[in-house]
Amino acid sequence: MRVKGLIWILLIIVVLFLVRHFFLTPSAIPSAPAGQQPVPVEVTVVQETEFTEEVSSTGSLLAQEEVTLRSEAAGRIVEIGFREGAPVVQGQLMVRLFSDDLKAQLKKTKASLRLAEDRINRNQKLVNMQGISREEFDRMLNEAELLRAEEEIILAQMSKTEIRAPFSGMAGLREVSIGAIVQPQQTITTVQRLEPLKLEFTLPEQFIGRISPGDSLNFSVAGQVAGRRAVVYATDPLVSQSSRSMRVRATCIGSANGLLPGAFAKITIPMKHIRSLLVPAESVVPVLKGKQVYVVRNGIADTTGIRTGVRTARSIEVLDGLNPGDSIVTSGLLQLRPGSPVRVKSKTP
Question: CA–CA separation, 126 vs 132, rounded Å?
Fold first, then answer.
């Protein structure tokens, strides 16, 4: 038993010696190798800068007004009063349905109404002299009132046989022909008012309160080199539960020449001016757990983890990890290791 105890003591001593020799000696601590040449680098000094945050989105162009004309009644088309793709004016006849039967009913009802009114006029004096009973005279009045109601019903039915443009605009492609029998709710054509066009897009809910009516934005469509401008006029107060975004609508500035409703648009929205720390995009190094930069202190470059925000064309906003006045490396990053000595070639304020 004593021999076994001595063996265990010897093993522990050997293990402690190895740990001290290989893991606790100064040579095991990461540091720049003796005599290592400084790496030539370029640095920039981090400063708080004012910039305009830009948000990108996509959307679609919409007509200022758009309606699909449908038939309210069944009937045969006897007249088409528009040309496909041509301008129309408010109140213009688009389609007329057969209505001769309704016109005959209206004529008959009007004749009956005239007889009823004449009868009332003739018996007005008799009822005052008690020549006829009040009850009989009231039946005459009621009969005339029913005929007037029937006349209004026929006129309402006749109005459904004429489909007119609700506003001035451009007619779409027609879906019917003369002689066709249409049914209620059957599509006839569309009418669109194109001036000015509207632009609809969505923004994540994080931008609620950061865009409001009157804000300007830029957009472009396929096939057109020049960009366009629009002004926000409304935001949807409801956030979509599926996409967690809100709808925004803007009015396009300028003529709609070359633009059509339904076209896809790429949108750039300049947000408010803010002050923040900006670093060149080339200085940020992606790593497994986030992003980092090389900070130079006393001629030694070391890594510092950062939390980033908005990205612009050339810079990245740093929300956490740097302070104003820090010097960060912008070139020679591939040659650097944590603790590497550096030689600053140039320094940008």
Answer: 6
Going by C-alpha positions, the residue among 218, 309, 311, 310 that lies closest to residue 270 is 218
The position carrying tokens 């001290």 is 20
119-149: per-residue pLDDT in tens? Answer: 888 887 777 777 777 888 888 889 999 999 9
H or E element in which residue 296 lies: strand 290-297
Domain 99-160 falls under CATH 1.10.287: yes
Contacts of residue 205, defined as CB under 8 A and 6 or more positions apart, other chains included, come to 239, 244, 245, 246
Q: What strands, in cross-sheet order, belong to the sheet with 93-97?
A: 162-164, 93-97, 75-80, 181-182
pLDDT of residue 134: 80
Q: Cα dihedral sign for 223, 226, 232, 238?
A: positive
Side-chain-side CA neighbours of residue 122 (13 Å): 7
The HSE-up count of residue 349 (CA atoms within 13 Å, CB side) is 0
Instruction: Report strand pairing: 39-45 vs 340-348.
Output: parallel
Question: pLDDT by residue (tens digit) across 313-325?
Answer: 788 889 889 999 9
Q: Specify the pLDDT at position 35.
A: 56
CATH of domain 34-50+276-348: 2.40.420.20
Question: What is the C-alpha separation between 124 and 141, in angstroms, rounded?
Answer: 10
Instruction: Check: CB of residue 214 under 8 Å from CB of residue 231.
Output: yes
Does domain 56-65+193-272 sit in CATH 2.60.300.12? no
How far, in Å, CA of 141 to CA of 153, rounded? 19
The conformation of residue 314, written as its DSSP 8-state character, comes to: S
